[in-house]
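so ive been stuck on this for like two days lol. basically i have the seq below and the ligand is magnesium ion, smiles is in there too. i just want the complex predicted, nothing fancy, no docking runs or whatever. if the output looks off dont worry ill sanity check it later, just need somthing to start from for the group meeting slides
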Amino acid sequence: MSEPTVRRRSLRLEDYVAGVKDGDRAVLGRAITLLESRRADHRVLAQELLTRLLPATGGGQRIGVTGVPGAGKSTLIERLGLRLIEDGKRVAVLAVDPSSSRSRGSILGDKTRMGELARQERAFIRPSPTGGALGGVAAATRETILLLEAAGFDVVLVETVGVGQSEILVAGMVDSLLLLLLAGAGDELQGIKRGILELADVVAINKADGANLMAAREARAQLAAALRFLPPQSRHWQPPVLAVSAADGSGLAELWAALDDHHRTLAAHGELAAKRRRQARDHLWSLLDDGLHRAFRQHPAVAARLRDVERRVEGGELTPRQAAEQLLDAFGRPSS
Ligand SMILES: Nc1nc2c(ncn2[C@@H]2O[C@H](COP(=O)(O)OP(=O)(O)OP(=O)(O)O)[C@@H](O)[C@H]2O)c(=O)[nH]1
Ligand SMILES: [Mg+2]
């Protein structure tokens, strides 16, 4: 009776739906792999699965955690996650890691960083998919959040390094964005773009412990003053700035209270639903932009002229606007 092979039985749509809804970790893991797959048949199945699960989604608290490398994001997520589990919640952690191809591995690849959380029955940790463009990774992460909600996770934390484009993408898929900063070195913003400060719903100065405590408190006060001059994202919410230590746990209760308060405030004013609607619409448009861009470059009549038209624009023979009109005309004609 027993199969001599270790190959896993392939799951049918119904198996995935039932497994995810039951919170079966093995099925959940495979469903996420399906979402990340670039195989055409996998993509079809994944979208069918999402469609089936959609009514069971939306119940999670979606939180992004960003900050410079080494700010303590993983340490903080583990601490916070353990607290939430103690409070009876189910917690999932995802990563959007633009640098996962570098030799150091992905954000959560080094499992020891969240080893304690990973061992918890009520936690689920998934590293960033390796390879692939950041946009694709982000799209898979957005869909993974939905799967996790359908599987009954109450809180979904998404970690990303705040040094490029990834934090903008993460801001577009979460309810609350937590920005982790470090005090010291004179420059409190350490290469963090001002733009990300404007996206943050809660800001925390981490490593407020030991010899660093005073500097962290000072940085907190300075930043709180600076933030008051930024345009608020919501008229019901002024992003608070806290000093915390992920290492010794101080300030984490206040930090969670702030995140929770943000979520409840948005929900109470109808802004949570509006934000999620806007995010879904923005995602639709970013998928359309990507698809149209690809279709445009691949269109035979466009591909045949593109290089030549570019050269004529570079040489000043054609204005960029004329060139664009010519190429869009070519794109609009049926290919054959
Ligand atoms: N003193 C102190 N050290 C901390 C604190 N939080 C994290 N660390 C240390 O800072 C280092 C980086 O912590 P991580 O949690 O890996 O930081 P990260 O932001 O996730 O880093 P990347 O994922 O590489 O971007 C580790 O050595 C931690 O032990 C803290 O609150 N206080
Ligand atoms: Mg990390």
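The CA atoms of residues 76 and 246 lie 5 Å apart. The longest strand covers residues 61-67.
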